[in-house]
Amino acid sequence: MPTPPCLLTIAGSDSSGGAGIQADLKTFTVLGGYGASVLTALTAQNTQGVQDILALPETFVVQQLRSVLDDLPVAAAKTGMLFSADLIRALARELKNKNFPLVVDPVCVSKSGHNLLLPEAVETLKTVFLPLADLITPNRPEAELLTRMTIADEADVPEALERLLALGPKAVLLKGGHFSGDILTDWLAMPGQQPRAFRHSRLSNQNTHGTGCTLSAAIAAGLGRGLDLETTVSQAVDYIHEAIRTAYPLGRGIGPVNHLHPILLTPKGETDQAINSFSNENSNQ
Predict the structure, then answer these.
(1) 183, 188, 195, 256: most buried by Cβ count inside 10 Å?
(2) pTM over 0.85
(3) Which residue out of 9, 43, 124, 208 is catalytically annotated?
(4) Catalytic residue check, 3
């Protein structure tokens, strides 16, 4: 049996299990990885919103990261909720010499409207942290915040992608969930290349809590398996689309996506085949 790649998430905790560290670890596991974690903050939240946030001291967050990197062979990592400028700077110092791909989900606001990144930390994220990223995965509101432009429709996407790439990441995936229309388009851009569009029909399922965390974790899982960026983004987009399609009501608010759909919807004895369907021959590269 091949050894699963070690995948690291640096993010906040979601006590309801739909987003954050919990969503990332579920995604890593179901896509064939071994998940490790660095907690940046604790949240008291459920499907109805975020009730409270307890940010962890920067020194303790850094110690968690050092403990993982000193011992485990991290193949890929992702970040989610970073919360403060001081923490962003501290993590940037630790990750500046990383030897693995880093996916940065620039989490700013929860689906219920709660700030997960302090307003004064936005510039620090842009100038200090985004240049370390192999890929950033903003949604439309996050992209507008980072670029200081209005992205009204698809006609504004090329300029937005150009501005996002100018912030220093190696690639950008601009997610299309906040745009209108029956077709949802995610745009992948890399310097010197034409953007690639990944299109899916828009789903009517309202249980979408944790979509951004789950997608970025799925991308990190693919990169950790050795897939090229376009392949892993394509597979991750398919994975989150199915996770939304098969999501079920849980709680009294916005329920979580179905992270475990490859296992839960697979007949007994075919689980390995379902998980491997999100890989291909490049996974051994």
Answers:
(1) 256
(2) yes
(3) 208
(4) no
Of the two residues 3 and 270, the one the predictor is more confident about is 3
CA distances from 225 to 33, 82, 134, 249 (A): 8, 25, 15, 32
- Identified catalytic residue from 29, 211, 231, 232: 211
Tell me the pLDDT tens digit for each residue of 207-239.
Answer: 999 999 999 999 999 999 999 999 999 999 999
Per-residue pLDDT at 276 = 55
Q: How far apart are CA 13 and CA 7, in angstroms?
A: 17
CA distance 202 to 90: 39
Q: Tokens 């994975």 — which residue?
A: 239
CA–CA gap between residue 245 and residue 250 (Å, rounded): 14
Neighbour-count burial of 183, counting CB atoms closer than 10 A to its CB (0-12 exposed, 13-18 middle, 19+ buried): exposed
Could you confirm whether 253 is annotated as catalytic?
no
Q: CA angle 170-124-23, nearest 5°?
A: 65
Residue 274 backbone dihedrals phi, psi, to 5 degrees: -65, -45
Residue 241 has pLDDT above 60, yes or no: yes
What pLDDT does residue 115 have? 67
Which of the following is catalytic: 210, 222, 253, 255? 210
Choose, from 32, 126, 175, 253, the residue flagged as catalytic: 175
Could you say which of 20, 212, 222, 253 is catalytic?
A: 212
- Which position among 43, 213, 214, 253 bears the catalytic label? 213
Give yes or no: 212 in active site. Answer: yes
Q: What is the CA radius of gyration of the chain?
A: 17
